[in-house]
Amino acid sequence: MIYFIIIGMAFVTMVPRIIPAFIVDKLIFRSWVNRWLSAIPFAALGALIFPSILTVIPEQQYIGLIGGLVAITLAYFGVNTIIVVLGAICTVFLLTTW
Description:
Brnchd-chn_aa_trnsp_AzlD, AzlD domain-containing protein, transmembrane helix, membrane, mainly alpha, transmembrane
């Protein structure tokens, strides 16, 4: 009985995720909708990361802000994402070891 429940829960969670993948490929959106949709991952990532920037070291919040500014600057110049992350990590590490 428990296996049927697990299979049913898996089915219920997979269907809403799979159906849009088949439907969206056939839809043609206007250019402004495509631009808006392409910004969603960056906005979500920013919303997830920004609270952590402020709480890297609670006593010294400026360290997280400086690391965030380094990441923003590197990303603005089109540097590879891995380099952006490593740059922010190295900045926070260097500022916390001094």
